[in-house]
Amino acid sequence: MPENLKGLVGPEQQFKDFLSDGKFMIQRCKSLNQFFFHPRVAFPGSGERDLEWVEASGNGVVYSSSCNRRLPEKGGDFNLSLITLEEGPRMMARVEGVDPDKVEIGQKVKARISSLNGEPAVIFDIV
Amino acid sequence: MDQNDINKLRGKTAVVGLAESGCGLASGWSAMEIMATAVHDALDDAGIKLKEVDGVFAATAFHSMAAMSLSEYLGVKPKFADGSQIGGSSFLSHILTAAMALDAGLINVAVVAYGSNQKSIGGFKTISEAMPYEAQYQPRMPVSAYALAAKRYMYEFGASREDLANVAIAARDWALLNPRAYTHHDGPLNVNDVLSARPIVDPLGKLDCCLVTDGGAAIVMTRSDRAKDTKKNPIYLLGAAMEHHHRMISEMPDLVRTSAIESGIRAFEMSGYTPEDMDTIQLYDAFTINTLLFLEDLGFCKKGEAAELIKNNNIGPSGSLKVNTNGGGLSCVHPGMYGLFVTLEALRQLRNASGDNVGQRLDGGWIDNAKLSVAHGNGGVLSSQVTNIWGVSDTL
Question: In the beta sheet, which residues pair with residue B391?
């Protein structure tokens, strides 16, 4: 491992490994006391590298949402949303448990770890 | 360096040749053949020989090193080349880079080019990689991203699908005046046509989305002193600026405010003109939401007011704002990356008003006495924003 790379794997793989272990983790910059997503090697915009992983509360609010139309034989319509996490960052995700076109901006949602196409994925349910 | 130094680029370069090629369906022609034909036609238009070209700028979804591939195909050995790929706005940034290279004396004649045969070989073509942290949710890019922005826009400002439809209706009305437009013979659209079109990603339906066509385009740029000796009226680059802050839609800080706010301020400042001075307004309308966002972000109205501004077909041929006068990406042409076509229409309107013959349009399709055009390019998912201000000689 080149000596400038700290850790066995990079933040993207660490995030995926956490998900595989059933944990939804996001990064926090200790000196700024700010969370961010997606995972990076340094805080975006100012470059601080004193980062730690913190388990996300899983609480969020729908920032925007869309129903992606797809033929039934290809899996049918599905939801695609942007969720603002309680900790501040935003992420893309899917909201389930309601019809894909019935997810409204401003609705409170809660994360759970599920799987999409065999990969662990953060999915949200309406609270 | 202060703003005055940057503003030294104002009016230093001009477009002296332009052409489009293979727009619509060009079965049997490769993307390179379409692009190179546009370059040769643009050089003929300028009266400049190929062997004088020493700057080559290009980006496509077919060539990973487009400027190099194009140079080789043309048989040109450029002293400077740029194949930067920032999506559909790439060409408007190439224009800025070409102006810098020309002004610095690195090159004397630049061509900026694009070519695509996406339609004739099967449909929308992209070279975008799968985005980490997004791909597993299977977004249908780029339309899913624009749908998320449209939905947020409707939520924040109380806009409706009818408001979005007004953009498509106006674009089609312009296309009906432009024999070059892909939908020229398709008749006008009404609100019901747009709202009842096949849903793609809510709230966007098929008629909220751009065309999928073949097509290429090219422009020839040179320094303004040289431009005076070419065949057509030069159109001068008065201002140019760019900015971007995200690549993935999930990283866009605010879905209803694009970097066009910043690119517009700097481009207009360089030009010495304001949005109100623009005789034609050419905006990258890959989707109906784009036109609303860019009218606001470039300063033609306040944030949240574009839906009201465009009512009563106010951006159509009979309206007060001459927006996307070729029919836009929605109704004229959209071969995957539309930036050079935004530019071509800005330039053609000014050339026509200067007395050059740039083709026939029905009554009202050409803007009388047009002296200033803004061309605004968008790339990625409301990501890269590049604004160019163009003017005829007496705007210098």
Answer: B236, B372
